[in-house]
């Protein structure tokens, strides 16, 4: 990419500034606050940064029209667009087709069917679902596929309604999703060591056939292809308990421009170049669903096609919790670990509702 | 006269660099924090003054209460069990054993390791497919196996066990230094007067090593109150809030919840709590110190 930029703009130079995982956000916050951030920013806080005035308004850029709806919404704050998202991702259940065939199981069409197939696997002494919850973020990979339908299956505007005071975090949506999650945990459908292993090991156990299912994001087929060949991978989504089955459509890899950049024209040109269809096709090859309507990356793994088919067949919605303050999302994870440790749902939703009220100012609609 | 004044100036001159560093890296951030604790700063947008709202909210914060409970539980165990354990170990290591040099080294070894390394290693031992469960299975206790760090009832005791394992040897070394300062004549004359071993420990050794009890209790209290790293690495405060300490919760308020103002206010109250507890402890144990 840097090479191509140089070909087009011989006077410009692209410098990459990479920072390790955990501290990326903290570091970017500090550098933005100090006015020392880079020109073009990969970031996952687009609306919060836009609200704070750190991002350039890109509403007039031609590439916006090429983005799909969830990416368009996610890049907007108060009617203006502040960047692009390169990928969309979704969450669901990856399953081992060989184990399913041996046990004569098929992907479920109702929540109860999902429970009973777990029960059958457990009765055969096969771990139904393997997860690596020690990594914390992985809790969401198992929660999102359930919560997406429970939150939005009957009311697509659930989070907006909470914001407007027409619905509550301590209502049937969140309580329902927590209760469904607890059903899986309490019946022993997750691996017994789920709280003490991370995602790497959970995925390896899934690849090794130690469990029949692994709830994770849509990048998983690409990761599995990097570790093994010809794994019999299938994908399905968890059917709603009540209401419509909804699929999560998260946006990932946000790209924005620093409002304080000294090179606005170059930055805009670079972003344009990065978003050209052939660049994005190369970027998404084998592992990422594109957030651009005119980009169709090639996927070696057939499970990716199953994911795409599911996305076309079901209504999509941004990830549950995208419009909750960070404190509520953190407390939700805490509630999930408590459920996994046998502590039950209890009054978790009431606690979340209190935090929501306290930190409501951090919700960016 | 002149020379004493210029000597004073010289002294000031030498203190200046340290004072400057202290001012920049301790005093200024501290005063800054005090100001931020009265704001709703979120780390991104410029802070607004909110008066005492943060402090008022803290007193109704259930999560803070739970974390305080966990922290005080750790403190109680460390002071009431850890401290006597260190003293007992020191008394044993003070016996004229041939292997005592080796034993002292072995018991002190954990204190030399970084808490990060210790946390990760113990994680491997205590996890569901870990060493402890393997040993239990080997001896036929399959029913007793647990995800020790993933169970509400066992997670905090497991964290405390690690702290005891790491801290007991260190405390013992401090006590050993104390024990060696107890004059042998006192012990011998007591022995001639017919005092038993326990009587000598209670009436001679303990009063004389009181300053060492003071310092070990102080270190134990301060260490437990600021406990952060072990639960951060091992359990991230979970499962639920079972191992969330005050230090960890304040960290989360700032860097996860992005409520920097609120977290700073919590930090301020926490500092006052530490000051009060350690002041009480020092005034109690100091009173029992005896002059030789």
UniProtKB/TrEMBL annotation, chain B:
List, alphabetically, the Gene3D superfamilies matched.
MetI-like (1.10.3720.10)
Q: What is its main location?
A: membrane
Q: Please give the superkingdom of this protein's source.
A: Bacteria
- In this chain the ABC transmembrane type-1 domain maps to 68-281
Which InterPro entries is this protein grouped with? ABC_transporter_permease, MetI-like, MetI-like_sf
Q: Where are the transmembrane segments?
A: 12-31, 72-93, 105-125, 154-179, 200-222, 260-282
Question: Which Pfam families does the record associate with it?
Answer: BPD_transp_1 (PF00528)
GO cellular component: a single term: plasma membrane
Q: How does it sit in the membrane?
A: Multi-pass membrane protein
Sorted keywords for this record are: Cell membrane, Membrane, Transmembrane, Transmembrane helix, Transport
Q: What is the annotated localization of this protein?
A: Cell membrane
User: GO annotations under biological process?
Assistant: transmembrane transport
Its family remark reads: Belongs to the binding-protein-dependent transport system permease family.
The identity of this protein, by name, is Sugar ABC transporter permease
Question: Can you name the source organism?
Answer: Cohnella rhizosphaerae
